[in-house]
Structure formats: C-alpha cells, structure tokens
Design brief:
The structure is a homodimer of 402-residue chains.
Chain A lengths: L15 H15 L6 E2 L11 H14 L15 H12 L11 E4 L2 H7 L10 E5 L3 H10 L5 E2 L2 E2 L3 E4 L17 E5 L11 H14 L2 E5 L24 E6 L1 H4 L7 E4 L5 E2 L2 E2 H12 L5 H9 L3 H27 L4 E3 L5 E5 L6 H12 L1 E2 L1 E2 L10 E5 L4 H14 L1
Parallel strand pairs in A: 1-15, 3-6, 3-7, 7-8, 8-9
Antiparallel strand pairs in A: 2-10, 4-5, 9-10, 11-12, 13-14, 14-17, 16-17
C-alpha cells in the first residue's frame, strides 16, 4: 500500500501568492466595475528589451532549420551564456569562476527549492524572518521543519529581521547548519553591506554551515554594495549563490536563471558541485535554448544598456512609492537597492487587515507581511514592478485614503 | 556541521548518457579524421515544424510589447495548451479530463524525477529492467533503493523485460507500492496492449499501488495500441501519466511536456492532485511562455499534419535500421511503435564490448543495454532520431562490418 509523504499535510494554508490571487479574484468577481492595481505578486510588467527579442527571434529561426536546429543542450547550460555570466556578473567584481561552477536553470525558484536534495534531512535550518516562502515550504516538504505551531515551524531557527537591526539578522545563538540569506532582500527591500555578509561567511566557516545566498535582485543594487556573496573572502568555501534573469531582465515568463556552486565547496570530502551536477543530470534537462539565447543577449553592449533602462524605470517606481508613502506619514523601508517597499501598517492593523482595507479603499493589491513569517506581522510589501502610470495612480489613491 | 545526503555517494558511475558522451569525445579526440554517427542519446535531429516556428515568433513578438507581454504564467500552464491536450490527447481516445488534472512542465524528465517527493521514503519501488535511468537514479537520491550490490540496488524490485515476455513484465511476486512503466518503451521499443496494461491497473487497484506511467513516446504508436493508460478502466484511480513534446515534436531543446494527475487519485483520503499542485507552486514556475505557445501550435490542423510528417520520417528510419540489421542476421526488437531499436549483441559480446567494437569498426554510437539495467546486458539500443542520410549510412556500415 502506497505511503504518502506526510509532510504535505503539515501545510495549513496555500502557497502565499495563491491565497493572495484567490482573494483578489473574489474581490474582482464581486466588484467587476473596480479598477484593481496589483503591486502584489512581484511580477514584472515591462516588455523584454529589443536586444533580447531580436536574439530570441534568431534562436527561433535556428530551430526551424536542420543545420542550426538545437536539441538537448550543452551539459549544464550553453557555454556562451555561462561565459557571459562569469565575465559580467563575477569577473567585473573581482570574482573568478570557472565554467563548470555555473549551472543554468529555469529560474531561481526551482533551484532554491531543489537544492535541499543535497543535504540530509537531519540538519538545522535557519531562515530570515520575514522570508521568501519557498525556502521554508521546500524544507517542510523535505521534513526538516517539524510542525507548525502558532504560526511557527517547531524545528526552524527564525532570525528576526526588523527595523532595529536594519533587516539584517543577528547570528543565531543555536548552531544552524543551513542558512538562507537573500540580499537585496525579498520582502523587506533591505541590502547587506560587505561587512555584514562577512560576519555570516565567518560564522559558516567556523561552524561548518552552508549559506544559501539568493541574489535574484542584485540588478537593483546601485550603491556600491556587494553584487555577489563571493566578494567576501572565504565565501567560495561556504556559499551557494542563486541568481535569476526574472527581475534583471523581465524573464518571469521566459524562465532562465543560474546557480553558482564553487568547487571549493567541500563537506566531508564531498564536492557539492559534483553532487549538484549528478542531481541535475538526473532530474533536469536545461532551460529552453531560446530562453538561453535571450539571456545571453542581456550581456551584449546593447542588451546591457537597454536592461539598465528597464531597471531604472522600476527604480523610479520604487522611489515614487517610497516618497509618496513617506509624505503620507507611513513608516517605509527598502526601495533603494531593491524593487520592494516594506511598510509598517498604520494604526496597529495586522497585515491581512491592512490587505483587506487597502483593497477595499483603494483597489491596490499588496502582499501581507505576515505571509512571509511571524516577524512580518504588522508590515506590508509593495513592489515597484508595475507600470509607471499604475504605480503613480496607486500611490495617489493610497495617499488620499490614509 | 552540515550533513550531506549520503545517498549520492551510493552512485558508482556517472549518469549513463554522460558516460557515453565522455567515451565518444575521447574517441573523437583520438581519431579527429573519423566521421562519427550518433544513434545513441535519443536526441532528435529534425527542425521544429513551420506551425511551431511561426507560433513561437508570434510569442516572442508579444513579449516585446507592453500590451501583450507575459510574466508569470497561468497557474499550472496556459489554458489554451491544457485544453488542446485534453481534446487531442485524451478526449479523442475516449478519456475525459478536466483542466486542473493537467500540469504543464518543462519536459518529462523533471516530473518523472520529482514526482517521488509526494511519497514516503518507505515504499517499495518496482522498475522494468532494463529501464530509463531517471526512475532509479531519482529514487537513489531519495533513499528508496538501498545499496548497489553487483549492479543491482538491494531494495528495488527488478521486473525483467526480455524477449520471452515480449518486454512486458510479469506482475511481481513481492508487493510493489510504486511501479514505473514506460510504453512505448525506452529502451526496448516494445509496446503494451490494452489487456497487458489492464493487468497492471488491476494489480495496482488491488494492492493500493501507484503506477507512474511514462508515455513520452506515444506519438510513435500506429497500431491501434493504447495511447494513454487512462484508456484502461480504473486507471484514473491508480496512475499518473507523463507525456512530453520532446519526441512528439522535436522539443528536446524547447522544454515542454505535461503530467496528468487525475482527481480520482486518492490515497489515505489525500488527493495527489492537490499535493502536486502544492509541490509545483512551491518549487516550479511553469515552462517558458514561448515554449507553451509553440506546444499549442502542435495541436492546430497545420501543426498536427506537419508533426505527423516528422514522426513518419523517424519511423522510416526505424524501419531502415530494423530491416537492415535483420538482413545482416541480427536479432532485433522494437522499432514498430517506438523510435528505439533493441538488438541482441552478436557473438556473446557484453553491451559495452559491443559499444566499443561498433564505435571502433563503424564509428556508430549507440547505447549499451546494460546501462539500462542488469537484464539489458547483451542488448544494445539504437535510435531512429538521426537524419535519414546518417541512419542509412550507419546501417550500411554495420551491415558491412558484421
């Protein structure tokens, strides 16, 4: 008789963004005349840049001719793309990587979710609180979290990220084996300095821990803050880094990103790089060729310029939201080196109360902070990924209503 | 201190096709003047059909304009594509499915590999022998296989598929909880009749087992044999089906397929459909929009006709290989309702000995049967996915050399 993975029954709720979508759909069905603006789920809205579009058209044409047709890919991603990543995202910041340390994927969600397969069930996991739900939920499925009691998983180490510590957590008192960090941070919009990251690298090296560093939003950094964890000495021996073209270049529907696993990353004499290579050859067959060619075009001269323009567009939105809300008297964080604005809910409202009130009064959709963890209660996330018009209109409505 | 998943260290060799590739690259480096023909890895060679190319160009154009840009997808796959699948791949064969029973993915390898996350580690797994390595290797990683002893995993049930049983296994004597079946079969090229599949459905229903049915090659069926396991009464209560556009329409580099999880599939009062929906929302973000639009075009009138032409091209290759080898005195199986030809190695050679001899004498690359499992020893797989010219030349060389 088949036995199921009983960890699934521990979930007490839907995946956060499914819940948000369901609530919004319900509201729209009841109020079909209302113009709902979503600054919620963190999806981008601006089209792919011309350099990417042109490259993808060329790739599609190649797929239509016998001589240039491409089937299965080039081991763990086309070399052109991997070399462009190494040169532009690493060498440019003084970090040396070799080709086989970069694994192309179909977006950071898959790899941040699946990376846990490399580790034993019996490891202590630490997460920032609030946090991107995938880190926790994938560990729930794997069986590392214990049970959900009063909104907290019994075996997880929660590291509160609050205004008082600038949303960069203290080192945990208990020993953590697996530590998820995400900077620029989703959902708080905070970034960590090189010194702050160094404390974590030192901790990991000292305790034999691994850092799972999600840098999916690194394109939004403009203050000289670290673009990759490997700018910290020693990080190659204790950190895996995840990056994505989703937010860098609007690839949420194109699906392409990458994971860096340095060959220095050895535990018990085993190479995590070799283990991940085995995992990927067994369970994955690369991102679409067309997506990979599109991603390569991001790194051409034209592509870089055009992509920066789109990032600047979103950063302007972030500024619009942040300054508008500040003027309206909200307590607001993030939005400088990140596409996320993190605000304190007014009048002691819970995050979901504020979600309902905001939707009701302004038809603006955001994401309740408590959906990202206990320390997110009383906070609320807005994203800068809307159109400029929608963003301005949303801010106008919020300022009027509150 | 981080503890690794110790199951990875149980692997004694590379993923099969990586080993084949390494050996071929070695040979090419030593003999740069030789013209190597690969009928090995099962990758397609013919370009995407015009209907798909046109659709993908339109999709790329949509991604370049604000009004038509697409970000994150439509829950578990675009409805257009899912409806086309339901109508053409199921309703046409008398099988009714609803939209939320079809999950679009980035190819069957990911889902056949990841589906095990729904099940407890403590289940007995049965596989056909020989078998597509992903079924076993993903269970090794999960910890369900025990140890590799003399080329056999100690906790697996191997179900020999040999000439004597027409490469369709007997029901196992031990109770199996999870049973992998693949028809048309990779690597033997055999197909199962409705009656043969019914025995398995009856077994699963009686024993509370689940069938994981891989039908990635169903496009090659032309003898009125079952196109889907759901043509068998009762299968919806015991089977998950995996299909792919990789071999149907040359999508090995495009990455799109689908998994069917009927809502009737309930164990312990839990819906596997709901569990998989939770798994996918947590760890996956859909196939590329462009790939999904391309896949939808396979189901247009033009797309169907053009796709059938490509399948006919490969089936002709299969016939060329099979009849050629038969004339040369080989014992040959498969190749009728499948793109795979399964031959008995001559003169008592082992599979790898024949691999080396074939490469040495004819520069033709195939896949050693023993790489697919113990009962594959003494067999060898050739694929029909080459160009017609290469296939004819390969057969000519083999006939001359043996």
């Amino acid at each position: 008789m088949l036995k199921l993975n009983s960890n699934f029954s521990k979930f007490q709720q839907n995946y956060l963004f499914v819940t948000v979508r369901n609530k919004v759909n319900e509201y729209k069905a009841m109020h079909p005349e209302k113009d709902v603006i979503s600054l919620g789920i963190g999806d981008v809205t601006q089209p792919l840049v011309p350099a990417v579009i042109d490259a993808m058209h060329r790739a599609v044409d190649e797929m239509g001719k016998t001589d240039t047709f491409k089937g299965y890919g080039q081991d763990f991603g086309y070399h052109t793309l991997r070399n462009a990543i190494i040169e532009n995202d690493y060498a440019a910041y003084g970090v040396k990587l070799s080709l086989d340390e970069v694994f192309i994927n179909d977006g950071a969600k898959s790899d941040t979710g699946n990376i846990g397969e490399l580790f034993d069930i019996d490891n202590t996991v630490a997460v920032c609180d609030p946090v991107y739900p995938v880190y926790i939920d994938s560990n729930v499925i794997a069986g590392r979290t214990g049970d959900l009691i009063d909104g907290r998983w019994s075996k997880l180490i929660y590291m509160p990220c609050v205004a008082e510590n600038g949303f960069v957590p203290e080192l945990p008192e208990e020993k953590a084996d697996i530590i998820y960090l995400c900077y620029p941070n989703n959902p708080t919009g905070a970034h960590a300095t090189l010194d702050q990251l160094k404390r974590w690298v030192d901790y990991a090296l000292e305790n034999g821990s691994i850092l799972l560093y999600d840098a999916a939003y690194s394109a939004f950094i403009s203050d000289g803050l670290p673009k990759t964890i490997y700018q910290v000495d020693g990080a190659k021996a204790c950190a895996i880094e995840f990056k994505s073209f989703s937010k860098t270049a609007g690839f949420t529907g194109v699906r392409c990103g990458y994971t860096v696993i340095p060959k220095d990353l050895q535990f018990d004499g085993q190479s995590l790089n070799a283990m991940w290579a085995r995992r990927q050859s067994t369970k994955f067959n690369e991102a679409s060729y067309i997506s990979q060619v599109g991603a390569s075009a991001i790194f051409t001269e034209e592509g870089k310029k055009q992509t920066l323009d789109t990032i600047a567009y979103y950063k302007k939105n972030a500024h619009t939201i942040k300054s508008g809300l500040q003027k309206a008297g909200f307590e607001v964080y993030g939005g400088e080196n990140a596409p996320y604005i993190w605000l304190k809910t007014p009048n002691g409202l819970t995050s979901w109360e504020f979600f309902d009130e905001l939707l009701e009064k302004t038809q603006v959709v955001g994401t309740p902070g408590s959906g990202f963890g206990p320390s997110g209660e009383g906070y609320f996330r807005l994203t800068a990924f809307g159109s400029a018009e929608n963003t301005e209109e949303a801010v106008r409505r919020i300022v009027c209503a509150f």
